[in-house]
Structures are given as C-alpha cells and as structure tokens.
Amino acid sequence: MAVLNKEYINFDKEIKLNNSRKESLARSRKDIKKKIRKWFKENKPDEIQPKFHGQGSYEMNTTINPIVVYDEDGNPIRKYDLDYGVYFIEKEGEDNKQSIQRWHNWVYASVEDHTSKKPIQKTTCVRVVFSDGRHIDLPIYYKKEEIIELAHKAKDWIESDPKEFYEWFNDEKTQKYRLEAIVRCLKAWKNFRELNNSNLKLPSGFELTILATENYYDADNLDEAFRETVRKIYDTLSEDWGFKCIRPTTPKGEDVFEGYSETRRNNFLTVLKSLLDDCDKAKEEYNFKTASEILRKNQFGSRFPLGEDKEEENKSKSLTRSLSTAFIKPKPYGY
Ligand SMILES: [Mg+2]
C-alpha cells in the first residue's frame, strides 16, 4: 500500500498561490477599485459612492494556480478567478436601490476600458477579463440597515453575505486541519477534468468548498484525508434524496444544487466515482510511481508529482524479508 502523502503535499504546493502571485492578484483588485471609484466620482457624484470588499476563494486561501493553456499566438493563459464585491450602502432615510440593471450598467461603464477585452455582463456580476487570462468578477451589493442584497439579474435582489461565508469556512478550518488543502486538490481536479472534457460542468469552487467542509475526514496524511473526504462526499450525494449542497450562511439553508439538471447531476456523480475508484486503486498499489501514475492519468494530470519507482518498504519488501527469515530453522539449544 503506497501512501502518497509526500506527492499530495507537493501537489498542493504546486497548485497553491505563492506570495508573489497573491500580491499580483491583490494589485489587480486594487487597480480596479481605483478605476471604479474614479468613474463614480466623475460621472455620478450625487449618487452613493461604491465601497469594496474581498470575497471568495482569495479570502479563504483556496485560490489555485490554474493549468496553463495557450492562446492562438502561443501566449500563456492562466485563468485565475477572483471575486471582488462592489457595495452601495444606503444613507439613512434615503431609498436609492432602484433597478438592478442600473447598477450593472454603471459598474460596467466604469470598467469598460480597463483592459483590452470588453467586460462580460453576467447574471450575478460584471466580469473584467485580462489578456493573461485572469478575470475579476464584480458582484454588486446594496446594503440597507445591515441587510445586504446581491443584484441578481435573473432572481432580482437576493439576500446574501459573502463575508459571512468565508468567515464560516475560515472558522471551520481551524478544527479541520487539512480542509484547505483538500479544497485546493478538489479544485485542481475540477480544472483538469473540465479541461479534458469541455462538455463537463462540475460544481463550482464554492460548491466544492461546502461539500468538502461538510464531509471532511481527518487523517494523519493528506492522501487518506483527501480520499476519505471524497468517499464521504460521494456516499452522501449518491444516497436517495442525498444530492444536495446546502448553503451554510445567508441565504442559509438554500440548496445550491437545486437547479442542476439530471445530466449535470449524473455526470458529477460519475466522475466523482471515477476519482474515488482511482484513489482506491492507488492505495492498493505498492509501487509509488505506479500509484501516482493512476492519479495523474485521469484525475490530476502531470501537475501531480510522479512517485519514486520503489515499493512501499514496510508493507511489501520488508514483510517478505521478515517472512523468509521466520522460516530459518532455529539453532538447537546448547550450541
Ligand atoms: Mg468568480
């Protein structure tokens, strides 16, 4: 049985943001903030001025380095995904909420020429896309008397609190020592699987984060903790009526899997089962290299380190050795 703890730890190092990457992403958020502020000051001086708040994986330390792809000119594209909340906080006694489209239009206008690519108007945000592949999502919130609502173009204003969510996760991980790494590994798995099959739409990073937290399995090594967390997620989701992912914070109790089509649900369960099966196969292997190859082939790709071409010591070779010595005839007493 080859325990791939070292390989998992190095895989996590490979996918985790290093400090200079973190700083560079933080700088892009800062630049956007400046840009939007300036636009509102100049173009909407009498309206509520925007405030900003980080959210999403960046605040939970679960952002991953995406697999590098290349554009038609051969330039490297790294699809970093950042979220940056834009808040409009109502002044006492005033009602400035108005239509969702109005806020979307203004935020869009404020960042329209920020990069060489046009921003994308999404249902829940304005997305600013950079030429190196990174994008910053700008969800828009309106806050009135402590109630925060997200401007959702399909569902109207919906109560939401992204800060509550990352605080929930950051609190959970103080008890769940390997949770952060498990979430990153799941996201890297999603990245690889989707890149190999563009029809596959796995759950979002946000949804995977909830699933990993709710089904966390603690173990001495990351290999086992990851595999058994995946097993718990799979077992729970594949039970009758078990296919749910409940939002733990405002709007608390919402099943974020509710809108999944049957195809999307079945596809997810199928690839999740294949991940679990490969984790089990790797576990049964004695040779580290062979075990790691199983995970590299269909689940994580070549970012997962290749193990050493040697057998697990204690469980195979040394076992055979100790068995063979056990059959050596003992010397008779007295000699
Ligand atoms: Mg995003």
Automatic annotation (TrEMBL):
<protein>
    <recommendedName>
        <fullName>Cyclic GMP-AMP synthase</fullName>
    </recommendedName>
</protein>
<dbReference type="Pfam" id="PF21654">
    <property type="entry name" value="DncV-like_NTFase"/>
</dbReference>
<feature type="domain" description="Cyclic GMP-AMP synthase DncV-like nucleotidyltransferase">
    <location>
        <begin position="50"/>
        <end position="141"/>
    </location>
</feature>
<dbReference type="GO" id="GO:0005524">
    <property type="term" value="F:ATP binding"/>
</dbReference>
<keyword id="KW-0546">Nucleotide metabolism</keyword>
<keyword id="KW-0808">Transferase</keyword>
<keyword id="KW-0479">Metal-binding</keyword>
<dbReference type="GO" id="GO:0005525">
    <property type="term" value="F:GTP binding"/>
</dbReference>
<dbReference type="GO" id="GO:0051607">
    <property type="term" value="P:defense response to virus"/>
</dbReference>
<dbReference type="GO" id="GO:0009117">
    <property type="term" value="P:nucleotide metabolic process"/>
</dbReference>
<keyword id="KW-0548">Nucleotidyltransferase</keyword>
<keyword id="KW-0547">Nucleotide-binding</keyword>
<keyword id="KW-0051">Antiviral defense</keyword>
<dbReference type="GO" id="GO:0140701">
    <property type="term" value="F:3',3'-cyclic GMP-AMP synthase activity"/>
</dbReference>
<dbReference type="InterPro" id="IPR048445">
    <property type="entry name" value="DncV-like_NTFase"/>
</dbReference>
<keyword id="KW-0067">ATP-binding</keyword>
<dbReference type="GO" id="GO:0046872">
    <property type="term" value="F:metal ion binding"/>
</dbReference>
<dbReference type="InterPro" id="IPR047805">
    <property type="entry name" value="GAMP_synthase"/>
</dbReference>
<keyword id="KW-0460">Magnesium</keyword>
<keyword id="KW-0342">GTP-binding</keyword>
